[in-house]
Amino acid sequence: MAEPMPRSLAQADWTQREDLARLVTALGAGNLRWVGGAVRDTLLGVEVADVDAATPLLPDEVTARLEATGVRVIPTGIDHGTVTAVLPGGNVEITTLRKDVASDGRRATIAFAQDWREDAARRDFTINALYADPATLAISDYFGGLSDLAARRVRFIGSAPARIAEDHLRILRYYRFQARFGSALDDEAEAACADLAPTLKGLSRERVAGELLALLGLSDPHKTVERMFAQGVLPVVLPECGAEEVQHLAGLIAHEKAEGAAPDALRRLAALLPADPRRAEQVAARLRLSTKAKKKLVLAASRQPEDHANPRALAYRLGRAEALDRLLIAGASIASLSGWDIPELPLKGGEIVARGISAGPRVAQILQAVEAKWIEQGFPGREKVLNLLQSEIEG
Hints:
- By secondary structure, this protein is α+β, with helices and mostly antiparallel strands.
- The chain has helices at residues 18-27, 37-44, 59-68, 116-121, 145-150, 160-166, 170-181, 187-195, 205-216, 222-230, 234-237, 243-259, 265-271, 277-286, 291-301, 311-318, 320-330, 349-353, 361-376, 382-394, and strands spanning 33-35, 51-55, 72-77, 82-86, 92-96, 98-103, 108-112, 130-132, 139-141.
- α7 (170-181) packs antiparallel against α10 and α14 (277-286) runs antiparallel to α15 (291-301).
- The chain is elongated and about 85 Å long.
């Protein structure tokens, strides 16, 4: 049986921030609670990245009170009741308590509320609906989030199908949170995600891409991805991926760990695709990836069986990060790139002209031939390059 979670936060570093204390004072006693990831992660002993807060005050009132004390406020999500307080220790998103009025599965119509439980009821998972009082650090848990957190169970608040119907993206969010925090599976959640998977087709590709990449960037999402594939969820958002590619991801993750390489979401996405740059381009376009992300994905998907034969030559041709992607996906060693700086060919075209070769195509041909031999011979120094040049000119 899992150890029960405490009903109050430990004195974590972030709870002692002076700028947060000033924030609480500015909004007034009882008008603010920490909520969501900061509370959940503190209870789990995980480093807190962002601090979010909830308040019964309307956004205009929050803004007025904070600006009166010299705190800059940005209306980051004003339509949804969210403003961001710009603080020295890290920005804080402050959202007015809300309740859902209507939803079409892609976007919700909300109304502001005054009741903490109403606000909790509209959140996705029980472990994300934990609120902490800044003064006492006592936790308000309206839907059993503490027991779910203790059991490492990701459970929807209320009916799983009903919560997914409100926002179809919650299917992918469920798998991401399950991969990050879960060990015990929730049967209702699993069944609902599988049954409602086709609804993911109606979401914006950017939202799907964001969740998919966030999942793939976790430490070891393979088991979750494997389950998504078996349950028919992954084929909806990534039809290019088959059973072989899912197992390829498992091999990549294991190899990353063996080589001491950090997880990389785009590298892992490439592993879930066939080694076909055109298919990768199609996926990048469908998911609305940035130009930089598209280039990385396509290069990784352009992998060839011979890539691992000469890792340094690969890095010289593609770049270090791009070579690492291909080598790791291939299960090849990356040791030869550790501490190695990609060199520059110690030869210029003008030096070839100076040896009596007329400027023009012949110079470029000689330069390319010397470079090819230089790479093949392991990037020797200038003296050897000059010998290669002389041989090429004479030959």
